[in-house]
Every structure is written in C-alpha cells, then in structure tokens.
Amino acid sequence: FLLDSGIAYPVLAGYPRNSEDEEYVLVNNKCQCVTVTSKFVPSKENPGEEILERNIRILVPLKARENISDPLSPLRTTFVYRMTELCKKCDPVEIELGGEIYQAQQSTSCDEPETCYTYNRDKCYTTTFPFRYHGEIKNVQAVLTPASCYAD
Amino acid sequence: MTLLAFIFLLAFLPAESASSRYLPKAASNPVFGPRQVYGLLKGSVTVKCFYPPTSVNRHDRKYWCKESATGCTTIVSTSGFTAPGYQGRVSITDYPLAGSFQINMTGLTEAEEGTYQCGVGINGRGLSHKVSLDVSEGPHVPEGAELFYVKLYSTLTVSCSFGPDYASTRKYLCKMEKSGCQNVIDTHQKFGEDYVGRVRLSNEAAPGSFSVIITQMGWEDSGLYVCGAGTYGESGESKELDIHVYEDSKVPQGKPTIFGVKGSSATFECRYEALRKSSVKSWCKWRDNKCPNIIDSSGFVSPSYEGKVAMYNNPHNNTYTVILNQLKDSDKGYYWCMTDEEKEQQSSTELKIIDGQPGLEGNKNVEAQVGSRVDLTCSYSCKYYSYQKYWCKWNNTGCVLMPSSDQRQPGTDVTCDTDNKTVILSFDSVAKTDQGWYWCGVKRNGLFGETMAVYLEVTGGELQGKDRQGLSCSSGLHAEPPSHAEPGFIPKGKSYSEAGVRSAAASESSDPSHGPNKLVLILSPVGVVLLVLVAAFAVFKYRQLKRSDLVSVGSYRTNISMSDFETVKEYSASNNACVQESQETQMGGDEFITTTAPPESAAETKKAKRSSKEDADLAYSAFLLTSSNITQGGPGGDSAAPDGPPPNWEGQI
Predict the structure, then answer these.
(1) I want to staple B45 with a disulfide (CB 3.0 to 4.6 A). Which of B39, B121, B155, B511 is the partner?
(2) Does B511 contact A at CB distance below 8 Å?
C-alpha cells in the first residue's frame, strides 16, 4: 500500500512548484573550500522513483601553505575533509519561540579552531615579516589579501 | 479508495518542504548581468553587471573576458589591463557605491560574437556572469531584458508602459517557469499562489502604463519575468524582465513574518529612506487588492482600531514602529507600510497569530467613579524583569507617556512594585478627562516590545448627582453599564464587553445574533474536515521525511571525474570564492594566463571517468602520476584559472 502511493505520488503531485527540481546548498565552507548541494534525481535503476543526490565539490589548493597566514611555512601536503565537520552549522540563526525571536547556534563544539586550507574572501589575512630599513630590522605587517582588508 | 482520496487531499496542501531551510543553488552566484546582448556591425554595445556592494567586492578587480577553449581571456579589467587588439575600443568603469560596473565595446566585428563573462575578482573563480553577444547587420536590434538587482526581502517596483492603445486591455506580470509563463498578478485580480498579500498592481497616470510592486523578495523570486498588455503568447505587447535577488549579509532586512500571541501585541518596524522625512507614513491591512489605512502619521486612526494601534516615528534610524495590540485571530494577514511619495518605500509583513501566554496581564476594563482613587495595574512576567516598563495614555497621534513626577493631574503616579512584578498607574482623584485607553508596555534599547491596553471608564458618581438635577438625563447616560451593545461603543472598545458581544465585534458583522446552536452545527463538519486534513498532512510530512532524510549508505555514488583535477579551472561557485594563497596577479601586466596541460595526461585522465569504486581507485592512482607531471611541467605563474567548460555539477567526486 505504501509502495503504491510512493510511485503514484510523483505522478499526481504537480503542485510542488519548484521544490523537486531545484538544487539546494547544504554546505558552503569557505575555509576548506567545499560545497555540498543536493537535489532529487530519478533513480537509475527505477526511473519512476526519485532519490536524493548529493554533490560534493572539493577544491584542493595544491599550492597552499601549512599555515595560510604565514607564507614562509612549508607547502601543505595533507588535506583532510570530514563530512561531520563540514556539516556543522555554527552560524547563529534566528528561530521563533513563543512569539519571540531568538538567535541560536545549531551545533555544539563550535569553539574548536578550524584549520583553513584557503582564504575566506570576507576576512583579512595579514602577516608580519622582517623589514630592513636604514640598517634596522623591523617587523612590519603586510596584507596577504588586499581586497578584503579595506576599512570601509 | 482512501488512497486516492489521500493523494487528492495532499495535492491541495501547501508544500512545506524541508528544502526551504536551505538556499537554492542559484543563490550562490551573486554577480548578475544581461544574458543576451545584441549589437550591430561596427556599432557599440554596453553591458552592465551587478554585484553585492560588500567591502571586498567594491575594492576587488572587475573584469570582462571572452570565453575560449582554454579558459576566459581577459579583454579589459579595472586593474588597468586592455588586451592587444582592443586598445581604445573597450572601456570598463566601476561604480562601487552603486554595486555595478559597465563595459563599453565599440567597433564590433563579426568575430567578436560569442560568450563573454563579466566578473569580480580573478578569472574563472565563479564570481562571474555569462553574457552572450550577438553581432548582426541590422538595421533593427532586439531589445534585451530589463535588469533588476534586488536585495533579499526588499521591495521591487517594476513599471511597464505600452502606449495609449492598450489603456483598457488586461495588463499582467508573469514569471517564466518550465511550464510556461505563470501568472503573478493581473488586472483581473488573479494572483499566483505564492504572491498573495505581497503583490500590488496599480495603473499609472499615463494611459497604458502600470506598475507592479512585489515585497519580501525571496530567493525563489529570481528569474525571468514578462510584463505585458493582452495575453502572453497570444496577443498584445510584452517586455522581458530579468530579476536577481542577492543577499547583503551586513544589513538586516525586515523579518517577513511576525508572530503575535493571541491577546497580546505585535510590533512592526517599517523602514524608509531618509529622503523625505516629512512625508505621511501610513500602515494598512491588505485585503482583496485594497489596502485600507489603519493608521498614519497625520493622526488618522481607523475607527475600529481605536486604542488598538499606535505609531512611533524614529527619524534617527529611518524607521517607524507600529504596535498592534489586543490581537485576535482575525488580525492575521498582510500589513503594508507605505509612504505617500516613493513607491519603493513600501514593505509588507505577514502577521500570524499563535496561542500563548501574553507577557503582560491585568484588568482590561476598569470603571471608576469621578473623584475616586484608581489604580491601573499591569503584571509583567519574569522575562520583562530587565526591561523598561511604562504607562501611557492613548490618543490618535500616539501614546503619550504618563509622567512620573511632574504631572498635569495631581496625584497621578507611576510605581513599580518589584516584589510582585506589577506596574501601577494610579490616579488620586480621577476626572472625566481621564477616561480613555491606557497602555502598559515594555521597552528595551529603544525598541518597543509588548503592550497591553486597558480602558478606563469614569462614571459620574452620586456626589455629582445633587448638583446636576437638570442634567440627570446626561449623567444617567454616563452611568449606563458598558455592556449595552450600542453601535457607538463597539468600535471603541474591543476588549470592552462580554464574550457574546466580543465575538460579534470580532467577526465585524452587523448581525451579532448567531445562536450557539447554529455555531455548533457549522463547526462540527468543519472539525471533521480539519481532522481529515490533519491526518493527510501528517502522512505527507512522513513522506517528506522519508524522501529527504532517509538516505542509505549504498545510495552514495562516488564519481570522481578526473578531468577536474587535470587543469586548475572552475573554483568554487560560491558567494565568496576561495582565494588561493599563492595567487600573484601581476599588476598592470599581461593577464592572459593559461596552463597548458600536457596532452598525454589529458587523454589519460579523461579515460578515468568511471562510476565504480575500484575503477575510481585506479583512476586516482593515475591522477597522482599526472598531477606530479602537471606541478613540475606547468608554467611558473600559477593558474589564474583559465575558465573551462561550464561547471560540471553532475557526478562530481
């Protein structure tokens, strides 16, 4: 009985305007450069049935340094991607409880620092380097991502 | 059969999909421009592209490049580069404050037909928009679609005019979907189901022209639209519109839905641009394509809302606040904030009524004798402990705060008894002029919170009777008990009287005498239908859950397509593309950067496209070999990513 309705359902339900055709972004991790999107596609074995397909797109920055804020650190050779970490939602979202809007964080363990493999375009990355001027060596701050570091 | 009946019912339920929690993928590319541009031979063409005006985007490099087999070669960019062959013919100008940049190409030749990209940042990173350029001999060049770039949850105004010939024909706005052009709104009052309450069509002064206002623009509202006169595809004229919604995460927009607890109050915030502070601001409830004013800043209050609504202006942050209290189920709906001048300032909010415990409680109807001492008490719940509490007297222009120390009426005092958590407004000797609506409210950080309304009625007492024998009739009027359902009283006092009259006033019908029997008769079949609907909805949700969350491990297909590893193209198409640390763009130098992948490795890696795990392992080891070839053999300057074929979203990894 249930299987029947499962097959008949996609045929009869013309009403969901856009929910089944669109691809949705589940993860957009700018630190590790991973995007996960999902959508429903017809199953290859059984074209009448729809299954959930998840597309995981990882861009591996092969020339990145171990510490992206330090251009003098060695090249990174190990890249680790964990779905559980990527799917963690640490940004506070607004939810409504009893008529009041609250900001809530959806995951625990959000305080652990993330090691980033690449730059987040919205953040400013700087480094200090020794600069010799008039015989004196000073540690000068330099910007690694100029476009992100403007004050306005 | 019941199965068919269930499915039939399901077809009419609103689709509350789990996917509404997530952004659609289309939202991840915020750079927007025209899809198709038409130019004449030896003529010129102007392309305007938009981007969210965040700090990074405003300062970043803007470019215009032509797509080719090896990527996207820059023609002109804001870092000062112009490709050879285009010197003096092409210009690019950035307007960072407006969030757009413009490219002008002159002296078009046939060879210049093709696909281009306008973008921000570095070529091929995905922060770009594809533009298709068509060069024809002419003489007539089709008009491209009109572009609209709107912020999420803001209001969009579109105007179309077709000349006086079409003054009396049907005007419409429809959205292009896979199944054709779906109606959004037209002059025959037909609305698309997603647009109820947030779309308005109004005719302009010039004959044959009209404008459409859509508020609360969401991600799903991006796309191609057609506005026209007549019927789409059959008769009349039409114009194409291309609308794109972007998010500017720094600036918060108004919340699309506000929840109000029954019996309590709801606060609406309306924003307006600072241009004309002196314009009249009004607030209305949307009903059948009309929006009758409830309150406006000139002091008008709709008679049925007396004591129920108040407006406060905050010129400092360009907002005004409207508070609606004594909420009932019938208050739910769409409310619009408008100014009488700029149409763009309109915004709308949906109010939903939920059951719950109001935070402020007290006696809503107080009767007192003239000259006696009256205490209006307002008990607040624990959550308002740290808020500022106040009492104010309501009038048409607002709610006037009751002063705590210096008072016009002697003996009036505002105290707060913190032990019992009540706020008391007391009158030592109440006078006739004190009659009216009083509001008890809470405030925090300058933002208005919940309020509660109390009606104080002052009756002439026996003390006065002796002096007013001649006026005994009028004093008798005052002494009448309030529950007499006189029409003059009903508009004023919503929380006034007993349940019977209240329900009559709530239904706003002039016939209050529906007996309880009839009510039960109507309610019981409605209840049965509701039960069936709820059951159907539960089944639907279960199916939804089953479809979206139940994914077995076996259904994860891993397709590692090695062609992506081959050359460094197509970075993340997300809003903020990841920047490789080792990117050194040469300032002012040649920006034509490409990687030449050795042909043997290309052949090898292309063969590696498989769909089973063991073949994937084979392909991966082959990749390791070729990647070491690439890193050694590639040119020194690192791939500023030549743009390859369009992003391959199917079967990645």
Answers:
(1) B39
(2) no
Please report where in the chains the tokens 């197509």 appear, as a residue: B570
**For B108, phi and psi rounded to 5 degrees?**
-70, 140
Between residues 611 and 630 of chain B, which touch chain A (CB distance below 8 Å)? Answer: 627
How close does chain B come to A133, measured CA to CA in Å?
Answer: 25
d(CA A139, CA B477): 88
Nearest to B185 by CA among B163, B156, B206, B165: B156
- Tokens 């298709």 locate to B132
Record: fold of B36-142: Immunoglobulin-like (2.60.40)
Question: Which CATH number is correct for B360-409+419-459, 3.30.1330.30, 1.10.150.20, 2.60.40.10, 3.40.190.100?
Answer: 2.60.40.10
Q: Does B444 touch chain A (CB under 8 A)?
A: no
Which DSSP string do the residues of B155-205 spell out, in sequence order? Answer: -EEEEEE--GGGTTS-EEEEEEETTEEEEEEETT--B-GGGTTTEEEEE-S
Tell me what pLDDT residue B345 has. 65
Residues of chain A with pLDDT under 50: 1-20
Q: Does domain B257-354 have CATH number 3.30.360.10?
A: no
pLDDT in tens, B259-311: 888 888 888 888 776 655 567 788 888 877 778 888 888 888 888 888 889 88
**Domain ranges within chain B, ordered by starting residue:** 36-142, 147-246, 257-354, 360-409+419-459
- At B162-218, the pLDDT tens digits run 888 888 888 889 999 888 888 888 887 777 777 888 888 888 888 888 888 888 888
Nearest CA in chain B to A116: B578
Would the CATH topology of B257-354 be identical to that of B360-409+419-459?
Answer: yes
Find, in chain B, the residue whose alpha carbon is nearest to that of A1.
Answer: B3
User: What's the pLDDT tens digit per position in B343-386?
Assistant: 556 788 888 888 888 888 888 888 888 888 888 888 887 777 77
pLDDT for res B639: 40
| Total beta-carbon pairs less than 8 A apart between chain A and chain B | 159
Pairing of strands B293-296, B281-285: antiparallel
- Cβ-defined contact of B15 to A16 (cutoff 8 Å): yes
Query: Domain B147-246's class?
Result: mainly beta
* B613 against B339, higher pLDDT: B339
Among A9, A17, A58, select the one facing B543 at the smallest CB separation: A9
Residues of A numbered 116-145 whose beta carbons fall under 8 angstroms of chain B's beta carbons: which are they? 118-122, 144-145
How far does B535 lie from chain A, in Å, by closest CA? 15
- Judge contact between B50 and B33, C-beta under 8 A: yes
Per-residue pLDDT for B219 more than 60?
A: yes
Query: Which of the two residues, B300 and B647, has the higher pLDDT score?
Result: B300
- Complex confidence, ipTM: 0.78
Q: How far apart are CA A124 and CA B54, in angstroms?
A: 13
CA B7 to chain A, closest CA, distance in angstroms equals 7
- By the 8 A CB rule, do B347 and B271 touch? yes
User: Would the CB atoms of B582 and A55 count as touching at under 8 Å?
Assistant: no
> Hey, are the CB atoms on B571 and A59 less than 8 Å from each other?
yes
- Helix-helix angle A2-12:B2-10, to 10 degrees: 40
pLDDT at B583: 37
* pLDDT in the model for residue B623: 63
